[in-house]
Amino acid sequence: MLASLNVWADVIAAGLVGAAVLFWIVQLVGNGVSGRFRQKFRFGQWPEHDEVIPVFPRLIHFLHVVNMIMLAVSGIYIRFPFYPGLKPFNQQVHYIAMWAVIVFMIIRIVYAIFIDRKAFTFTKQDAKVMPQAMMYYMFVRKHYPHLSKYNGMQKLTYGYAFPVLLTFLAITGLSMFWPNQFLGWTGSVASAAALARVIHFTLAALIITVTLIHICLSFVEDFPALMIFFGLRRQYWEEDYDEYYEEDEEVEEQIDPRRAEQLDDQLDEPLDNVAVAKVLAAEDPPPKKKGKN
After folding, report:
1. 208: which residues sit within 8 A by CB, 6+ positions away?
2. What is the Cβ-side half-sphere exposure of residue 173, based on CA atoms within 13 angstroms?
3. Which partner from 82, 101, 128, 222 sits 20 to 30 angstroms from 29, CA to CA?
4. Is CATH 3.40.50.2300 the classification given to domain 2-37+52-229?
5. Cα–Cα distances in Å, from 275 out to 46, 271, 279, 287?
């Protein structure tokens, strides 16, 4: 029976990861065909954020991602040892990364409860807006229903489901490391440990799938925020806005109002002046200066 369960676990894992890959393909093609990529990457029409992302959650997020990658890579090798001789090393890496993920998950939960509670509180309004968000991701709805820092699906997934999944993943993982201590009550430690291994692998595949979908939506929906989270792009602080608006006023004087209105008509929402200037510069670049012969 356990042999058949292992086969089914592999089938389910392959199906989940395949679904994540299909989701990536649909999002990339859909954003390209619908013109969303054009609006965002060319015209700079990304979501606006009301606050600067604090350093602490960014750091925890980065460390969590690094250790999750270590867990995934080492776990895949333990499940499928494609290169001989590395299993003890990968088991140690898996063990260290497991404790790191547990620690960072606890820190993030405590932070969410005491500092970021409002952002993760699921409300009735979130429930009403969730279908609209789903239709937006399926390209049925044009506009994203912005309600708060996170939409309802994000709150349920990352605020509730993800911690629960990671908790069960940790429990089944610890059961395999210390089977007598965790599974002695079952009366058959060997069988219980084998079953825990199947459950652990299936949960890991589900978490990897959710993570791949999360990365995809971060890329297509808010690429600048993704870059900021990993320290690859600088955030705007309060003192930067004065300089930004000074630049905005200078650019506004150079814009052809008729061409700017045409650009606005091509999109679902108006462009800011800096974005318009970038488009106009790309369409009508200044003449190159001739070098001296």
Report:
1. 16, 17, 20, 72
2. 25
3. 128
4. no
5. 11, 6, 6, 21
Amino acid at 35: G
Residue 272 to residue 248: CA distance in whole angstroms: 9
Helix axes 273-283, 238-252, angle to 10 degrees: 50
Regions of the chain with pLDDT less than 70: 1-2, 50, 147, 235-293
- Structure-block tokens of residue 47: 């979501």
What are 15-53's pLDDT values in tens digits?
A: 999 999 999 999 999 999 999 999 998 888 888 776 777
Alpha carbon distance 134, 139 (integer Å): 9
Give this prediction's pTM.
Answer: 0.75
Mapping DSSP onto H, E and C, the string for 194-241 reads HHHHHHHHHHHHHHHHHHHHHHHHHHHHCHHHHHHHCCCCCCCCHHHH
- Chain centroid offset of residue 272 CA: 27
Q: Report which DSSP code applies to 160.
A: I
The label of the residue with tokens 């859909």 reads: 30
* 3-state SS assignment for residue 122: coil
Q: Is residue 186 within 8 Å of residue 192, measured between CB atoms?
A: yes
